[in-house]
Structure formats: C-alpha cells, structure tokens
Design goal:
This protein is an alpha/beta fold. It is built from 8 helices and 5 strands, in the order βαβααβααβααβα. The protein has a 5-stranded parallel β-sheet with strand order 2-3-1-4-5, sandwiched between helices. Helix 3 runs parallel beside helix 5. The radius of gyration is 17 Å and the shape is globular. The structure holds thymidine-5'-phosphate (TMP).
C-alpha cells in the first residue's frame, strides 16, 4: 500500500515519550515530511471525550472489559477520522500510544488476554505501525517522574504496572522487526540519536515510497 509512514511510541507512564515525539516531528518536518502528531486515547473530539471518562479517578468502579472497549472505541474513531485519512494522503503519522498499549495495559495489566487483540482488530481496520519505539524503564522510576496528579490508570498498584511492563517485553519479543526497545534511562540526546538511526534505516527501506 502506497501510504505515509506510521510511527508509534509506547512505554510506561513517565518514560519520556512526549519529549522524543516532539523532537522527531521537528526533525521529520525539516526534511520535508508532512507530519501529523496525535495521541491515544484521544486525537479526535469524540476520542478525547472517551479519554476523560477512562482516566477520570472518579470512575474507580469501571469494569476491565468496559475499559478495554472504551480504549478500542476511542481508537476506532481516531483511526477512521485521523490516522487513515492522513496515511492515505501520504502524510507521516506519529502517534503517542496505539494498539500495543491496549495489549500491554488491558491484556497483561488487566489480565484480559487475547480478548483485547480481538476487540482491537475491529478498531484498527487493518493498519499496523511501520515502526514502534518502546521507551522502557522500570515502572517505579516512571512513576517518580510524573509531576502532575495521577490519573485513574497511574493510580493502579505496582503489580499492575509490573504486569504492563512484562506485557511490553512480550510484545517486543513477538515483534522484533517492528518494535525497537529503547532504554528510557538514557539521556534525551542519546535516545534522540538512537531513534534517528532506526528511522534512517526504515526510510532507506521505504525509499520506493519517499523521494529521499
Ligand atoms: P498517556 O498518559 O500516555 O496519554 O496515556 C493514558 C493512559 O492510558 C496511560 O496510563 C496508558 C493507558 N492506556 C491504556 O491502558 N490502554 C490503551 O490502549 C492506551 C492507548 C492507553
């Protein structure tokens, strides 16, 4: 499919994704790539509304399957309204979290297992990232880096976050070509360089799409 590049960032809370995403957008735009920066849950008005419901600390009674379905619903709207149209228009899409987050958080963290993949196959409409940067760090370190009030997911006990971490490790093991593990304890500059290097390699492979 002759479409734009789809790049996702994953990792536990506090892993420094946002900083790297902003840097990457600037870098790609300076090289002439029209770039759409978006996030999950969110990226459209409807999906941002769903985000508020999911992360609201008042919704402590939310059932795990309801949570997984809400993430998938937000994703469905986002894919249909933002991601797919951008990719079809040959734009590069950088997305802060995507389906891997659901597998890690709801599949492993909430122990919903394969149900999460099945639900999300409807939501993603056949698209998958070309490359995923997984900024990994111990959940306890990540939590310590969050300087605002915790949302409903961040308030979960340590065991939940450790299971999410294991989920990410499993995902990386099963998708070694797509998922690039990055040690998020490294400096911002070191991480930036590592991301650039991997992206260069991918762009070389995709040179039939992009006029480099
Ligand atoms: P954010 O703080 O990185 O924007 O993400 C919001 C929270 O939602 C974060 O704790 C990870 C979680 N999350 C899931 O549990 N499942 C998902 O599918 C996504 C996209 C995020």
């Amino acid at each position: 499919m002759n479409r734009g590049l789809f790049i996702t960032f994953e990792g536990p809370d506090g892993s420094g994704k946002s900083t790297q995403i902003k840097k990457l957008k600037i870098k790609l735009e300076s090289r002439g790539f029209e770039t759409v920066l978006t996030r999950e849950p969110g990226g459209t008005a409807i999906s941002e509304n769903i985000r508020e419901i999911i992360l609201d600390v008042k919704n402590s009674e939310m059932d795990s399957l309801t949570e997984a379905l809400l993430y998938a619903a937000a994703r469905s709207q986002h894919v249909n309204q933002v991601i797919l149209p951008a990719l079809k228009a040959s734009k590069t899409v950088i997305c802060d979290r995507f389906m891997d987050s659901s597998i890690a958080y709801q599949g492993y963290g909430r122990k919903l297992g394969d149900q999460v993949r099945i639900i999300n196959e409807y939501a993603v409409r056949g698209i998958s990232p070309d490359i995923t940067f997984l900024l990994l760090l111990e959940p306890s370190i990540g939590k310590g880096r969050i300087k605002r009030e915790y949302d409903r997911l961040e308030l979960e006990q340590n065991k939940f976050h450790e299971d999410v971490y294991q989920g990410y490790m499993e995902l990386a093991k099963c998708n070694p070509k797509r998922i690039i593990i990055i040690d998020a304890t490294k400096s911002i500059i070191e991480i930036e360089k590592e991301i650039e290097l991997h992206l260069e390699k991918l762009l070389l492979k995709k040179r039939e799409i992009y006029d480099l």
